[in-house]
Amino acid sequence: MNNDTNKASSVERAAGAANGWGMLIFNLVLLFGSAIAIILIAVNAAKTSNAAGLWALIPAAGGELLAIILLCGHFTLQPNEARVMILFGAYKGTIRASGFWWANPFYSRVRARVESPEGGEQKNAAGTTVNVRTLSSKLSLRARNFNSEKLKVNDKRGNPIEIAAVVVWRVEDTAKAAFDVDDFESYVHIQSESAIRHIASLFAYDRGDEHEPTLRESADEVAAALGKELQERLNKAGVIIEEARLTHLAYAPEIAQAMLRRQQAEAVIAARQKIVHGAVSMVEMALRELSEKSVVKLDEERKAAMVSNLLVVLCGETEVTPVVNTGTLYQ
Known about the structure:
This protein has 331 residues and is an alpha+beta fold.
């Protein structure tokens, strides 16, 4: 039963907080009132030489100490910022409203301590030096950009490619972000790279089967698949994916030249096909016009010669020098 409870996902719930300005006035009155009471009691005891009157210092000192403790309960929240309330290790709720607030001063201002390259050096139980970073109980709810590094992966056909993506995300559930993962920012970065690698392996770079989306030509389909993959991975951290798109896509350097030559050959073939198709159409139109308007009657052999000459002129890469026939077509 306890194991099931520990594995259950955290659920965000609202926490209550008092207006900070009203509590500030109360705390200041208590602070200065207790200080004045201590002074008056001490002065009165000194004048009357009545040591028994000093017992009144105990509640006055208690009020002073209470005021100092209560002052520690004040905090501020900016727009699109939240604070998770943790009381002696127990989650008590989240405050999302911006402003100046007061809550139980024993609420923790730290939600976790994690190993991090940016933290200070400490030693763990095994005596090994590690870097430790303290995570605040305040969480930003603003949209954030994460631009991944260029990753070298294999596409669907096994070709090595370089790929990178930008991910726009924000925290939706503060309880999951704070308690279900160790460090949700690091979690987003690592899972994003993993998702990008997986999506790259599902699509071909630029030559798929018929009607198959590719990484280069189907940007919207790839972005939708990447966003869905990321959302499934980051639900555990209470994160919402706003947008995910590829920012870099290229063949790996070791095959880039070969693929460039292939693309150039494909472009030349495509251009030749278009030129030949146009030339054949023009020859057909010329023969039809000559026949319909009875300009000249040609036998099959002369038609073949005319077609050959026209195709050479229309499909040649260089200009053709015309030869004028001063005799007849049959000489």
